[in-house]
């Protein structure tokens, strides 16, 4: 068993704050998904857990024992590097087998056991026909899979997978998300799965950590992060397409509160945010997921309210994404209908008002009340 924790870890590179006061625990058998934009500090966090970098302050502990002074090789971490870090002079087979031939493992795995493990993994990720090649003879996606196998072939205290499937084609990514999740949870070790694609970690992880500018913005169960992003920065990352964020004002009309922007009027049902949170607010940001907006066919209603113009139209087979212009804002609508639209078409929008999120327009913080996450996804 190993429980890994980061306790108040901070790291700077000159003036750049790569990580700020990170507190995070990874439990055995748990996949923690770490997401955030490029430069957020994701790889730095991995390197600190692995012992390749030292935090300026704070510490890493395994099973409650602080590791600050142990070196990388002592930590028993299987680290898949974002850069792959393959040995150029070794074949694919020998790259993957390398960790099993280390002095401390030599007695555990004989040649036959090594070959069996390598074959199982290379078959899983569909590179079993490439084992005799050298890294220079591989594509980026093939190198990535070699690096992935070299991490998975080990039985360490923790798996750190820094962007394990980002360079693979969509079909293989889809297949491997599920297959890797099954494998990692069965191993009873903590895993950290890093991806700038928030929906990838939402789909594979038990818990999602959103890191932006070195600061943890939100930690939670995947669907909780998806449904209730803690601020607009998280809202912009999580979702496909991401949540629409429209800034406007609140107006009270006969006891009901309405949101108004240049192109949109939406009534805000009670319970979306605490009433005291909304009182006296001039501007506010409305968040609505693309799949919570419906295009009403048949053109505008009498009032012309929420009638917008189609900007672009993208068919994806099972669904379509229609981008519309509402006032100054471009909004994305994800619709299961397959009626095509052309730029310039006038359409009317209907919003699922039970699934709206309001954010403070200045701070960007969600005004959704804790535990009051409405809607069901
Ligand atoms: P991510 O993996 O999320 O893209 P990184 O952890 O690689 O982000 O980097 C976080 C920040 O720290 C970035 O601004 C990056 O430029 C900076 N950084 C990372 N490593 C170094 C280094 N060795 N020297 C200087 N700056 C670095
Ligand atoms: Mg990185």
Overview of this protein structure:
- With 377 residues, this protein is an alpha+beta fold.
- The longest helix is centred in the middle third of the chain and has 17 residues, at 170-186.
- A six-stranded mixed β-sheet has the order 6-7-8-3-9-10, sandwiched between helices.
- The chain is 22% helix and 32% strand.
- A hairpin with a 2-residue loop joins strand 9 (207-212) and strand 10.
- It has nine helices and 20 strands.
- The structure holds adenosine-5'-diphosphate and magnesium ion.
Write the layout of secondary structure elements.
Blueprint lengths: L3 E10 L2 E11 L4 E5 L6 H9 L6 E6 L2 E2 L10 E4 L11 H6 L13 H14 L15 H13 L5 E5 L7 H17 L4 E4 L3 H7 L2 E6 L2 E6 L1 H6 L4 H6 L6 E10 L2 E5 L4 E4 L6 H4 L4 E6 L4 E4 L10 E9 L4 E7 L2 E7 L10 E6 L5 E4 L17
Parallel strand pairs: 3-8, 3-9, 6-7, 7-8
Antiparallel strand pairs: 1-2, 1-4, 4-5, 9-10, 11-12, 11-14, 12-13, 14-20, 15-19, 16-17, 16-19, 17-18
Bound molecules: adenosine-5'-diphosphate (ADP) and magnesium ion.
Magnesium ion binds next to helix 1.
Count of alpha/pi helices: 9
The outline comes out as: globular
Distance between the termini: 35 Å
Main β-sheet, in a few words? Answer: 6 strands, mixed
Question: Which terms would index this structure?
Answer:
alpha+beta, binds adenosine-5'-diphosphate, binds magnesium ion, 5-stranded antiparallel sheet, disordered C terminus
